[in-house]
Amino acid sequence: MTPRRWIEYLAAILTGNAIYFLLLFPDLPPLLRHRPFVFDLGLALDFFLCVTVYGVIRMASRHAHRLNQRDRMRSSASDSAPLPSQRTRKMSAIPNRKQ
């Protein structure tokens, strides 16, 4: 496990719990409210929110990684390609004719 992964876990747990307790909890029916030290539907809903937030974090991380790779490939390709002003044109013996 890398420190980055631990940070992702912590962010997912804190964000999921904040969504559950600050936004959803006041409006939930009593069946879906978590009671301390009891396995209930509220705990399952809280766990589901944390896992969902973690999935969103991982998807965003992978998407950003792919975009960074694509940008690196583009920049390395443009660095190795000569600029238009540096390109040499081949002079042909036969001029281009319009047909």
Gap between N and C termini: 67 Å
Gyration radius, rounded: 28 Å
What's the overall geometry?
Answer: elongated
Summarize the main sheet: none
Overall average pLDDT: 86
Structural class: mainly alpha
Q: What's the order of the H and E elements?
A: HH
Quickly count the helices: 2
Number of strands: 0
Uncertain ranges: none
Strand content: under 5%
In which range does the helix fraction lie?
A: 55-70%
Structure summary:
This protein is mostly helical. The protein is built from two helices and no strands.
Task: Write up this protein.
The protein is mostly helical and 99 residues long. The chain has a domain at 1-31 and 40-49. Helix content is 63%, strand content 0%. It has two helices and no strands. It starts with a helix and ends in a 19-residue tail after the last helix.
Give the secondary structure arrangement, pairings included.
Layout lengths: L2 H22 L16 H40 L19
Helix pairs in contact: 1-2
Descriptive terms for the model:
single chain, about 100 residues, mainly alpha, elongated
